[in-house]
Design brief:
mainly alpha, 4 helices, about 0% strand
Length: about 100
Amino acid sequence: MYLFLSFLFYFGPALLVFLLTRKQPVRKMVAWTMGTEALVLFLGLVVSPVLQSLSWGTFPTLVDIFCFWGGESVMGLFVPALGLVVVTSLVAITSQRKDR
């Protein structure tokens, strides 16, 4: 279930914005989609470990942030990286088709 929710979190917002902005000019579509993916990555990779550390009653350090995904599973950083690659590829392919 955790893996499904991770896929939904890292893919969902960017793909939704991509679908909503695909009729817009290429620059707008790329800016909104990649901006959304950057926000999702920031929330998932920086804000989430900080909030979890604060919920444990400790002040977060850089080590906590960098080591957060190491303890989750082997798939810890695979899902965000795959989300970024898929969204970037989708935007690149669509923007090339629009330029023709």
